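Teaching assistant here, posting this on the class forum so everyone can see the example we discussed in section. The complex has two components, and the goal was to see what a joint structure prediction looks like when all of them are supplied at once.
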Amino acid sequence: MTALADLETPSLLIDAARMRANLARMAQHVAARGGRLRPHVKTHKSADVLKHVLAAGSVAGITVSTLAEAEHFLAAGMTDILYAVGITPRKLDQIAALQSRGGDMKIILDSVAMAEAVVARAAAMDTRFKVLIELDVDSHRGGVDPHSDTLLAIARTLHAATGTELMGVMTHAGGSYDASSDAALRRAATTERDLSVLAAERLRAAGLPCPMVSIGSTPTALHVEDLSGITEVRAGVYTFFDLVQAGIGVCTVADIALSVLATVIGHQEDKGWAIVDAGWMAMSRDHGTERQAVDQGYGVVTDLDVQPLPGVIMGSANQEHGILMMRPGDPRPMPVLPIGSLVRILPNHACATAAQHGHYHVIEAGRVTARWARLRGW
Amino acid sequence: MTALADLETPSLLIDAARMRANLARMAQHVAARGGRLRPHVKTHKSADVLKHVLAAGSVAGITVSTLAEAEHFLAAGMTDILYAVGITPRKLDQIAALQSRGGDMKIILDSVAMAEAVVARAAAMDTRFKVLIELDVDSHRGGVDPHSDTLLAIARTLHAATGTELMGVMTHAGGSYDASSDAALRRAATTERDLSVLAAERLRAAGLPCPMVSIGSTPTALHVEDLSGITEVRAGVYTFFDLVQAGIGVCTVADIALSVLATVIGHQEDKGWAIVDAGWMAMSRDHGTERQAVDQGYGVVTDLDVQPLPGVIMGSANQEHGILMMRPGDPRPMPVLPIGSLVRILPNHACATAAQHGHYHVIEAGRVTARWARLRGW
């Protein structure tokens, strides 16, 4: 076991107890409503973290954001994999290769044109792909209108072909990230559920199969009250949580399990600044709290025990420099952070901050107990 | 040789001809003023790119932003290395190890406290460190006031000790990124030069050595007219340039040598959106043009020949999804980008976008001619 003070800076830390509590909370929330989880691995990209996700229970399979993740987690033993980015025909060779190695792959699309392209490619390859239709429930990204004729046209195209198996519908209520009240989150969750069930019922009423009805996002997953008609819930960022989720009200700052360790390298005393050796390369350029009620800059600064230094944020960031300061408008003086001292910085967006690093250091009771690799690239 | 259409997406591309032209422009600008370059490798982090930087000439050594870069480029044969982030005593073991392998390392600091800590550590290690004093010329980050007594106090501390060798002064006029006119850039460049020369003269007048006077940033390096008294100029992003530099007026969009290849995976036709399989993971979350005269979203969209599609930007980005749209206010219709078609996206910030990738694909005359690895981590 290593002390925190023996780590080089910047380093990416997981508070293991907080992570386990986050995983248990989501697993229990979904299980209590009779649901199952298909956790998104894009947040952590680590087979070591996934072991803890599985240990928390209620897991039906995983969700990936890249085919590199699919390769990695299939090699680690996870076979039931949903690739939650719209497929293109050029990626089907890789999907087929994953299938030949035991991957039970599910792909998604949201147009007749792409459905026809997948059908054509499947015929040319003499293979078969399991396909879900992506739904748009909140106008934030891709997907078809659950009420549309297009939904049925895509479904018929997929169902009529021998090379594609219509598996159902999926959606991601990403618009929930703009919610700012518990009531708004419950409305987003209800809308996501209702429109997904509606789409599934329309398919079945047309004589089409719909064995999977997949919904999710961390905010809606934790606010959905009724999972009738839903076969699985997808979520990722709840693994670590972050300041954006705390700003939405889905967690508290004390739940955030990810932080970056940094060393104080200088001061500008007249400005009340302390400068650390962690900038946007270590934190990411994500400034997702900028439009929330409390702008946390590039992160909330804590002591080594992850207790926030009241009012202190990383107010600006260069590549390898972070400038710590009091949050604008906070009248308190900047605390003394001597040269060489260590701080931890809680991130705006766990997925983005973790993506800047090649591994995690795992902290249990203030000691470094493990180093876990994480995947990068595509 | 591979065709662009054979690459997986997203992929990071270097337009080799543009890169060589950018490197030649900077080398000639500095050489014409009797100066030498200490190029910053933090932008590209690639020994293959560095070969082209060296071929362009006028190079005195390199600048690094992490000790991992120092390790990497020392192994590639570069010995003269300036680590341009304020040192901490905990990093001196690694500096000493680099020196023992032939690295001619220069470190920086900006306080008497850190100078004393380095002196103490050098004595304990029985080794010697070459140190520059960081100057603050535009209040944007670290550094001491060139007019201050602190400058002389640090210099005396370093000069009096046997374990530290006072090498001179260095500054980075990062405030130049906020300039918006040629005149403002020339003023920033002149201020950076004048204050650095002033600091050097104050050291010499006090009987202290100052063999190095190191200045730089891409905008000021290309706007400095007189390098008298300056021993070297540091710059990095000019290697590739980017939309932020184009917004400042330091380059044009047609000079940008870095782009991300992406595939169109869907549309929301009523909104005029095309959705691609490159989001913030491929582009970074850098939105540095947001406060410039033209907000380029997460990037400017071009065809495969790097010709911009007029008015089309990546207006928003999720982890692996980018939403292409007309720039807000542009009345033209969104061009047709069929499903499966390829586009290239020019980045806001080359350092940040490159950091999201593990390698470059090098494009010469529209063909992929090489794959170059790049370094990540610390």
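For the discussion questions: Chain A has a mean pLDDT of 97. Chain A is about 30% helix and 25% strand. Think about how each of these relates to the inputs above.
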